[in-house]
Amino acid sequence: MHVTRETFDQVMVPNYNPAQMVPVRGVGSRVWDQAGNEYIDFAGGIAVNALGHCHPELVSALTEQGQKLWHLSNVFTNEPALRLASKLTEHTFAERVYFANSGAEANEAALKLARRYALEKFGEHKQKIIAFTQGFHGRTFFTVTVGGQPAYSDGFGPKPGAVEHCNYNDLAAFEALIDDDTCAVMMEPLQGEGGIISPDPDFVKGVRELCTKHNALLIFDEVQSGMGRTGHLYAYMGLDVVPDILTTAKSLGGGFPIGAMLTTTEIAQHLKPGTHGSTYGGNPLACAVAERTFDVINDPVVLEGVKQKEQQFRDILATINAKHHVFSEIRGKGLLLGCALNDDFTGQARQFLDASTTEHLMCLVAGANVVRFAPSLVIPEADISEGLSRFERAIASVVAAK
Prior knowledge:
The protein has 14 helices and 15 strands. By secondary structure, the chain is an alpha/beta fold. It has a 7-stranded mixed β-sheet, sandwiched between helices. A 4-stranded mixed β-sheet has the order 1-2-3-13. Strands 11-12-15-14 form a 4-stranded antiparallel β-sheet. Strand 2 (30-33) and strand 3 form a beta hairpin. The chain is globular and about 60 Å long. Its cofactor is pyridoxal 5'-phosphate. Homodimer. GO terms for molecular function: transaminase activity.
């Protein structure tokens, strides 16, 4: 059966507006479409393909597990899930792991756990959740309400209650909002969808101290910032702050859908049998691929390489911007970078993305004013150089059309 981009308009719900080309094959940081055109991938499936496309280690893990065991349900446990959980707890602050299928599901579990913990330990009054404007935590009704972007949560009827927001990096506003009725604070240690906003170190430390003071659980949403993305295994490790609960997904599976919630033994005990679950969560296929992904990424050479590649991006982007004057700053950390547009190009991030696609470069946006890059953590330096050459051509075409 031959399908084209037009097929999308005929059979798919119109909640996405995908590019006109249809990718059919990928190797490393290169992708080919139906017409055989080659693209360089700076999008990484939105920070998912942390080891690029069809990494031989991941292909091997998937095919090996695919010939053994696919699915059991949580009436049974399985070896890949146990090995992956063991590695996650060995290499992070956590002692317990819950597996899900996505970042939104991991965040949903974290929020439900925080509410249950507070209810059982302190009583019904302790239910307030604080999160941050421009935050993004998923698309379930609970997580999208906690995410601080009303455009995503409005228009679906009454929202879950006792959720409040304040501005990221505004410690005074946060201190005024948190109290003894607060059960949890959910934050990204590097805001992704909200525009690639790095946290002020004093802000993060202040949030941690105030959470401790008010017996509120600090939940770090590391769905986008985790698994080597910042040059640390998890971003909290570079901030000198330890959360009570951490969520991870995206890069965790290297392209295979999986999410996880990590926490301590004391907090975890409040999710007793029957309180929460997931049919596919922790299935052997996903966990086998994620375990291999974890093994490859959790390597000092790979993590140090992320920092070196960040510097290459920043150096070349600075040269490009000196010529074309389109960015006010390059934001982010590691290989989660945002090119913030200056006042002359306000609101035109999508034009830069479309022009990049025309130049055979895949990239992303983070809001209307930021072009986002989240490439493979092992992208070769030659692909970074070539991709940024294409990006410069895209920039030139947008500037010329202005």
